[in-house]
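hi support,

uploading two proteins for the ticket. first:
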Amino acid sequence: MREFDYIIIGGGCAGLSLAYELNLHNKLDDKKLAIIEPRIEYVRDKTWSFWKVCSHNFEDCLKKSWNQFNLRLEGAVPTQVNQCQKYPYQTIDSGLFYKKITDNLKKNKNIYFFNKIDGLNIKNSLVFNSVPEFQNQDTHLWQHFCGYEITTKKDCFNDKTIALMDFNCEQKNNLHFFYILPFSKRKALIETTWISKNNDSSLKDYDLQIKSYIKDNFFNPEYEIIYKEEGAIPLFYPSNSNENNKINIGTAGGMTRLSTGYTFLNIQDHSKYIRMNIDKIKNVKRFELSSKYKILDKIFLNVLRKNPEKMPDIFYKIFNRNELKAIKFLSNKSNLIDDLSIILKMPKWIFIKSLFN
């Protein structure tokens, strides 16, 4: 059995972010690290986006950054344009992210990649696990989505403004919106996004949804699909247990914000915390998102589950003339005044009832 000081299970966003953080700060100069990842090669497979409310290591992996965004209600034009110069909305190209990190890790002879954990002694290692375990998946809400990155023959997109949520689409008694990241006037990522249970196949005719949306909203342009992604984010915490020599990271470690699905910056904060405390990690408090966000997200998702038809208006009110406070709240950086400004915009009776359910 091969021995390692550290083992990272899962070489995705969380696993690689942690390995990079440790290596960047010379924590692996005299320690051996094994990364368990089944994929043969790293290619672009995801798009990670967030408001930049704190610094991170991957500015050179950005696909683009924007200073304004809009929301659109059903049957309306997207009149609410929100400014976010202080906290620009950024998108990471996973292909650039993977290349940057793997190129860096290959330079350290103490770092090894394996396709399987077989043959490694995990009992004597500190294990960081990024593979979530789920129970009763069909009873919970998921954020599931599919996106096309397209190029068009003519100018179609406002490349200065992202469409954060376009609710002018069929809802089917759930919450559905389109999300547009315009990289130029002729290139954009267009995603159909549902928040619902993940076992309803009637919501997953993604290709038809996207093609109809492009036709109806951009005057049926001629376009080419250059990239496609599909995924599902659990809006509930996984069932991974904590053990003496194992620390869960990423979604497995509760780093996904349940009301939004945002995970990337939480992973970076967690990686920094582990790196700063790596020599005493078993004796320090485990890193968690603030309990106030867990409580508020639970209430928020109860409202969504029971009143999906009211959610577009609720999101609209959250951001209306309140974008900076809303961004901080949704990015785990809000103070009490920010929290109260968000709560006061909610439909009071609906949220009070959800508080006791």
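and the second one:
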Amino acid sequence: MSTRQPKVHTQLGRAAVQIFAANDRMNQTLIEHLDPAAWRAKPPGKVRGIAAIFTHMHNVRCKWVRLTAPHLKVLRQLNRARCTPQQARAGLAESAARCVEMLAEALGGGGGRVEKFRRDGWARPWPVGVEMLCYMIAHEAHHRGQVCMLAHQMGFPLRKEAGYGMWDWEKLWKEWGAAGGPELNGAGKISGSEEVNSNRVKVRGRGAPAPHNPKERGEDNGECG
């Protein structure tokens, strides 16, 4: 899916936008290659199932945007009891686009209105910075790990395309609509002419449907577990 990319004026802002875009493409890849029977399968113990995990990820993003960038488009939450894989993919694509806009305003150097990151109503706001991006990515990576583990435990191991696909960032960026990631133009130079580390590590690997707005539910409580 090609996504309109926001204008950013700093290397950090461009990196944040592309990193979060790759992050959401990982979510999309997981759902795409997940056995349909795993979506509603009941996991052992008192833990969230896979459908509940993905709807939780979307709903927490909605909270981040609502608290941190209330001037952006208000998103509806997903209902974990009724959400289908197709609805989850559409919702995640839409909330990812809003998060990308939020990150671009916060870190893009364009004088945007995002000055504090408010991850929850009880939490102390943070000044915008790389910590904001790290927190958002860590939350989603935590839950992706849960999905991979639960799928295996319940007898629905992920296809190789999903496992390898999460590491093919060039492909993930291309699917999002970027040219292919942090391409260097000359020694140690990126397209915006900022200097970058010449020892850049390259990640290598093998190798949405229309938005859906189900009836809004109450706030998704908590971000962990």
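thanks. also noticed: The first strand starts at residue 116 and ends at 117.
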